[in-house]
Amino acid sequence: MNLVTIFISAGTMLGLAVIFSYILGWANNAFRVEIDPRAEAAMEVLPGANCGGCSYVGCGDYAVAVAAGEAPVNLCVVGGPTCAAELAAIMGVELGETFPNYAIVHCGAHSEDRLHRSEYLGEQSCFTANLVKSIQGCVYGCLGFGDCVEACNYDAIQVIDGLATVDYEKCIGCGACAKACPRNIISINPFEKNSILVVKCANHDAGKAVKGVCKTGCIGCKACAKVSSTFTITDNLSVIDYDKYIQADTEEIDKAVKKCPVKCLGFAGKP
Amino acid sequence: MSYLTDIFLIALGAALINNFVLYYFVGICPFVGVSRRVEMAFGMGCAVTFVMTIAAFLCWILTTFVLMPGAPLSKWVAGFFVSADVAAGIDLTILSYIVYIFVIASSVQFVEMYVRKFFPVLYSSFGVFLPLITTNCAILFACLMIMSNIVGVDNPADAWDLGRALTLAIFGGVGFIIAIVIMAGIREDLELCDIPKPFQGVAITLIVGGILAMAFMGFTGVDSGLRNAMIPM
Question: Could you say which residues of chain B have pLDDT below 50?
Answer without folding.
Answer: none
